[in-house]
Write a structure and sequence with these properties.
binds fe (ii) ion, 15 helices, binds 2-oxoglutaric acid, Jelly Rolls, alpha+beta, 2 domains, cytoplasm, JmjC_dom, nine-stranded antiparallel sheet, single chain
Length: about 400
């Protein structure tokens, strides 16, 4: 990344949606079924009792398929999800309809009305992403490979814990998700590293607030308070591309290939065909890059994109400089304060050793994980994969791969 933006900090613009007269801020979650173009939805479900150290990655949650109206009713406590060990209700479990590309799942009318263009923030693609959850639902700590992020809160309240990129949070590509680098620290359970910088930022996003997250900042996000009428926590975000994404795409391609090579499930299929696929993916990405390299110029001098101020880092800087003077900075928090924040309020966090007999814990039906992806890999394999997919390893690999002599 160029040094143009290494000093960027996250900020929040309170009531941005209201100030911009953004229509969706007035919508009701009751209309959720009307917005969708699908008859059923898939939710990620887990217990609101958080066992310390057990990060509820997607594959560890229960996957539940509901009709959209059932989800709306469930959020209001007017419907129960039947499950073999007892009913799933919002007081014992959370549910998250998360990470859903708007264009793929919602009607054109909805997608257009929700576009960030309507906030005066024009983007190159229509790739707004939708998140609707109940209090307690969370996305484990991670950073995103591409671009910078604008996240807009529409209903309810969400807590964001944000860490600078240099924080030593044990990045891992297991469990694998394209363009997501997870931390192995259970931030939701208040577990934090004892080495490296010991500070983070913590903010509660309320209805209408827009959060700016600079490239590569870690974040741990949890639905906190549901909308008064509907019980849901609803937000929409968009990642805006920057020039260095081209290089990130190559890294992601290599990570995808390495991960699939060691994934046990992968070996069950026809190996030969898989390897041919991997080879063609790699050469496609690198060929694409070669043609870009020919016209490559230093990115901070001249953008490949036709209108410099419209896309990429210069667009980000324009947005940053325009809004920083009116923005609210995220309050800084020491790790000790964060631990207190996580243990003091809101959610039940249990230490496995000391609370097995806790009544509340026993009464809450524990969701059986569908598959514990993280545990599928022996420790050494996980370590090896993370070493090979470490950012500086990948930088070096790309240099070597571009060297025609080898
Ligand atoms: O809202 C969430 O649960 C996660 C959001 C997120 O990771 C993002 O906007 O990049
Ligand atoms: Fe993210």
């Amino acid at each position: 990344m160029s040094n143009l933006n290494h000093e960027l900090k996250p900020f929040v613009l309170r009531k941005f949606a209201h100030n911009k007269g953004y229509d969706p801020i007035k919508w009701s979650l009751d209309d959720f079924p009307k917005w969708l173009k699908k008859d059923v939805i898939r939710l990620r479900v887990a217990s609101t009792s958080h066992e310390q150290g057990k990060i509820m990655f997607e594959k560890m949650c229960l996957s539940v398929i509901l009709k959209p109206q059932q989800f709306v009713n469930w959020l209001k406590d007017d419907y129960v999800i039947p499950y073999e060990h007892g009913n799933i209700v919002p007081s014992t479990h959370w549910a998250y309809y998360d990470y859903k590309p708007a264009a793929e799942n919602f009607t054109q009318e909805f997608t257009e009305a929700l576009s960030f263009d309507k906030l005066g923030i024009k983007g190159e693609f229509n790739d707004e992403t939708i998140w609707i959850g109940s209090p307690g639902a969370y996305t484990p700590c991670h950073y995103d490979s591409y671009g910078y992020n604008l996240h807009l809160q529409l209903k309810g309240t969400k807590r964001w814990i944000v860490f600078p990129p240099e924080t030593e949070l044990s990045p891992s590509r297991i469990p694998y998700e394209e363009s997501t680098i997870y931390s192995l620290f259970d931030i939701t359970g208040g577990q934090l590293p004892s080495t490296g910088p010991q500070n983070c930022y913590c903010i509660y996003l309320e209805e209408g607030d827009l959060l700016f997250i600079p490239p590569k900042w870690w974040h741990s996000v949890q639905c906190f308070k549901g909308d008064i009428k509907n019980g849901g926590v609803f937000s929409v975000n968009k990642w805006f591309p920057i020039e260095s994404d081209e290089k990130e795409k190559k890294k992601e391609c290599i990570v995808g290939c390495l991960t699939s090579l060691i994934n046990p499930e992968y070996f069950e299929d026809d190996k030969e065909e898989q390897f041919t696929n991997l080879e063609s993916i790699i050469s496609e990405v690198f060929q694409m890059q070669q043609s870009l390299d020919l016209e490559e110029v230093p990115l901070n001098k001249k953008s490949r994109m036709e209108d410099e101020s419209k896309y990429g880092e210069s667009k980000m800087m324009k947005f940053y400089n325009e809004y920083l003077p009116v923005a609210e900075k995220l309050p800084q928090m020491s790790f000790d304060e964060l631990k207190r924040e996580m243990s003091s309020n809101h959610y039940k966090i249990f230490d496995k050793k000391t609370t097995v007999t806790d009544k509340e814990f026993m009464m809450s039906p524990i969701v059986i994980p569908s598959s514990e992806d993280v545990l599928l890999y022996p420790n050494n394999i996980r370590k090896m994969l993370n070493a090979f997919t470490n950012d500086s390893t990948l930088e070096h690999v790309i240099k070597l791969m571009q060297n025609e002599d080898i």
